[in-house]
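Feature request, filed as a ticket because there's no other form

It would be nice if the structure record came with a short human-readable summary line next to the tokens. Right now we just get the raw output. Example of a typical job, pasted below so the devs can see what we mean:
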Amino acid sequence: MRRLIATSLLGVLAACSSSPAASPTAAGPLAAPPSSEASLGPSPTIPAASPSIPPSIAPVATIAIGTLDVYPPGAAVEVAVKELNLRTKPSTSAKRVTLLSRGDVLVISPNDNISFGFGPVSKNGFTWYPVMLTEYRNGTLPPLPVSPTAPVNRTGPPLSGWVAANDGETPYLAPLAPRCPAVVDLENVQGMLAAERLACFGAPITLAGTYGCPGCGGVYVGTFKPLWLAVPQEFDFLSVNPAARIGPLAVRFAPGGPARPAAGTRVSVVVHVDDSRSTKCTMVDGAGTTATTVDKRTAVLYCRERLVVEQVQTMGPDPSFPPF
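Raw output as currently delivered:
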């Protein structure tokens, strides 16, 4: 199981301040994530799924995420300037983690159950986002079912930090097109980034796998409303082969919706993104003096990306499911 990574990054202040972008090369309008004329809010209704739980068909086109002025959590972007600083905190005085180059592929945090913080944050005249550095370059993503955040030549979690996305006029990042799968199954969907699922699935989809997470538990510190949809912590995993790996894809069960099946049960579930209750999502990360209110736009997008269960069909126990 992939472990949730702490959302607060310790930073060391540098001795002097410097610009986040070493040499932006072009001026122009602020780059926005993939968008359409739709509004930020989710669709008011969710198409009803058939009681027989039909198999999913491949999405024929990318649907509207909405007109956005923030990057969605789990969006893939590339560095659009010659050089860009990755820093420990959203500040020009924060220690530099590394120097990024044009074409380096980043993923906006959080993505599913991996988090290094929430953006955007405005400081020093720049708009900052926490990101994960992938091992991909030249603005390219791996073909599905490979996840861009999965290790290729590294071990451990991806390198992470904060980057300036723009200075109000010049964009330093450029969004990458979502990868919509030709075959909609658990293996492909779990390899997608969270923002890609929101972009690709305009109707409910059906996924088959093994439900549950043996020994999972823990508490995420913060205030998240509604809790079942907004908390950035996952326990309801679906697995292709639980003997090899639990998850990494998780679903959400709404109050009053279908009941959770027993852990270790083979299931077929109908799920949807863009739940209508997402518009009410709010998030406060942490508590006390370290508490940070997450930008409302990001909180809503995070909730819109969650896979909410509509129907569950059980198909018996999976003998390969690990014991508790």
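Something like this underneath would help us a lot:
The first strand starts at residue 76 and ends at 79.
The CA atoms of residues 23 and 82 lie 6 Å apart.
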